[in-house]
Model the fold of this input.
Amino acid sequence: DAKTTQPPSMDCAEGRAANLPCNHSTISGNEYVYWYRQIHSQGPQYIIHGLKNNETNEMASLIITEDRKSSTLILPHATLRDTAVYYCIVRVGRGQGGKLIFGQGTELSVKP
Amino acid sequence: DTGVSQDPRHKITKRGQNVTFRCDPISEHNRLYWYRQTLGQGPEFLTYFQNEAQLEKSRLLSDRFSAERPKGSFSTLEIQRTEQGDSAMYLCASSLIRGGTEAFFGQGTRLTVV
Done:
């Protein structure tokens, strides 16, 4: 079963920051938080992942709370092409196969 | 292109026929995962390989499904005696064993059973 909870949908205005929340209150110490997005009919696209520290790459920033029970994905300047379903995933440890267990995700709509 | 490759992208088959899908992972990735995704749902884990060994199978993987990864390189997923309920997107992903690394997905094979 998925170990994350996300809002089913969100809207964001084009050019503004999109902040997508995720709760993962049962995360274990060696489990990472991963974010993927999926545009209709395509495979999931990797965005970012982190363990404890905040992370940033060319696509997004990931803010993880100090207790690791929740995180926020930030798309700093959302464009229409960022419209997609965003999945927050707690990846099981490599000793258990490193599977990604998907939940329902957040459907983000970026509007002009 | 050095990403995960899946073939075919689309497959339409008649109920009762057998189908086989292929996944070519990123070359140095030891782990390979298969997922199934139905409309409106997130991908569901089916099975995974570490090199050539199949280490876990989900209860979703009925006896009609079989997966192989000979020589630890490409993998195939076969569905025998297809049913309409098998219609879905079948996704393949690969990653290194090392913890905290990315897992990359292919574009999937969309199966329609008529």
Remarks:
- Chain A touches chain B at residues 2, 30, 32, 34, 36, 41-46, 49, 51, 85, 87, 91, 93-94, 97-105 (CB under 8 Å).
- Residues 87 and 105 of chain A are 4 Å apart (CA to CA).
- The radius of gyration of chain A is 13 Å.
- The first strand of chain A starts at residue 9 and ends at 13.
